[in-house]
Each structure stands twice: as C-alpha cells, then as structure tokens.
Design brief:
By secondary structure, the chain is mostly beta strands. It has a single domain (2-120), classed as Roll (Archaeosine Trna-guanine Transglycosylase, Chain: A, domain 4). The chain has helices at 14-19, 79-82; strands at residues 2-11, 25-28, 41-46, 56-73, 92-111, 115-120. The longest helix is centred in the first third of the chain and has 6 residues, at 14-19.
Length: 123
C-alpha cells in the first residue's frame, strides 16, 4: 500500500544530519502554509545541487520523516542548529521535530521546493 507525503530535498550529508538529530533547523526561502505541524514531511537527500537547469534528481534517497513544529524567520543564532555559517535575513527556519529515520533509506526523486512523492506503507 502506498501513501502520498510532502517532501523537501537537502544536499548530502545534511539529510543524514537531520536523521541523526544533529540538524534540527532546515533553512528555506519560503514558508509552506499548507504543511501542518501534524503532517509527515519526507527529507530527501541528494548528491546534486538542484537548479532551474537541473530541477530534479531521480537517484535520491528518503532518509527520514519529520514534522515541522514551526516556520519562522531565520535568525543569526540559528546557524549552529542549521549546520551553516551562512546567514540571510530573508530565509526561514523550519524547526524540525519527531524525527524518524528510515532504515533502509528509500529511493525516490529529489525536486525543488515542497513537492509530493509516493512511499510504501508501513515504513
């Protein structure tokens, strides 16, 4: 049986850091108003930097399911939890909670933005 979940892509090794609980904030340039704190979000790890020229990677891996507790403005002090030295006041911090690593990781596609994928149940 399959179910459709929302997903976001991150560049390796950031997905592994999220799955291990080492990265608790993900940085995005948008807020996903239709993603509720009770919904699962699949973290998809890719080795490729996705761009307009390369908007998709068909050889990515789903590494964990999370929930997004809140989406708020990214502040300078968030950098350590986000595993970045960079800062932009236009970014948003997605505070991650209820992290459930997938073992084994699942092959899926990576794409830009918030997107949907089908996954097998139960995970």
């Amino acid at each position: 049986m399959t179910k459709v979940v929302k997903a976001v892509s991150v560049i390796a090794p950031l997905g592994d850091f999220i799955a291990q609980g080492k990265k608790t904030i993900d940085i995005r340039d948008f807020i996903a108003a239709d993603l509720l704190p009770t919904q699962d979000l699949l973290i998809v790890q890719t080795k490729k930097s996705l761009t307009k020229e390369l908007p998709e990677d068909l050889d990515a891996r789903g590494v964990c399911l999370v929930r997004v507790k809140e989406m708020r403005k990214f502040i300078y002090a968030d950098r350590a939890e986000a595993k970045t030295e960079r800062f932009d006041e236009n970014w948003y911090a997605w505070v991650l909670t209820d992290v459930r690593p997938l073992n084994p990781k699942i092959k899926t596609r990576a794409a830009c933005g918030l997107y949907q994928v089908e996954i097998e149940e139960p995970l």
